[in-house]
C-alpha cells in the first residue's frame, strides 16, 4: 500500500524535473528566433500544452466516452473524467500563453481568430462537461450524460487543427504536425521534442493521480460523496 501511494509522487517529481529541464533548455540553450525575438520562447510551453490537451487528453476523453456508452464500464467513466479535468489545465495554459506570445507579435492580446475562437469554445465545452458531472448525484445518469457531451470533443479536435487551412487566420500554420517535414532548425526542434516529452510525462502523472482519486471517491457510498 505504501509503495502504491509513493509511486504517483515519484512520477510527479520526475515530470516536474523534466518540465523544468525543458524550460531551462528553451531559455538558455536554444537560439533566439530572428524575427520574433525572446517572445518566441513561449512556443516551447504553448505548443506542448496545446498538443497534450487536444491530441492526448481530449482525444482520450472522446474515446473513453464512446467506449463507456458501449461497455458501461465505470473505469472508462473515471478515465474520461480524469482526462477532461487534467486536459482543462493544459488547454488553460494554452489559452494563457497564446496571448502572451501574440501581444508582441500581433500587437494585440486577443483576436477572434478561427483557431483561437474554436479553442476557447472547446475550453467552455470541457468546463461544461465537468459542471454537468457535478450537477448529477446519480452516478449512472451522470456518466451517461457526460459521455454524450464528451463525444463532442471528437468533432472539435480535427476542426481546430484544420482552421488554419480553412480560414484566413493570423495563427501560423503547423510547423511540426504538417504533411511535409517539420520546418524548424534542428536545435529548436530538439527543444520542442524535449518539451513535448516532458509535458506528456506530466500529463500521465497528473492523469494517474486524478484517476486514483476518482477510484477512491467512487469506493465510498453515494450518500458520503453527495
- Quantity of strands, as a count: 0
State the major sheet. none
Poorly predicted ranges (pLDDT <50, ≥5 residues)? 1-8
- Percent in strands: under 5%
Distance between the termini: 27 Å
Strand/helix succession: HHHHHHHH
Principal-axes geometry comes out as globular
Tell me the radius of gyration: 19 Å
Number of helices: 8
Derived from helix and strand composition plus strand pairing, the structural class reads mainly alpha
Task: Summarize model confidence as the mean pLDDT.
Answer: 88
**Roughly how much helix do the residues carry, as a percent range?**
over 70%
SSE topology sketch:
Elements: H1 2-28, H2 43-71, H3 74-106, H4 114-135, H5 139-151, H6 153-166, H7 186-218, H8 222-225
Describe the structure.
By secondary structure, the chain is an all-alpha fold. The chain is 77% helix and 0% strand. It has eight helices and no strands.
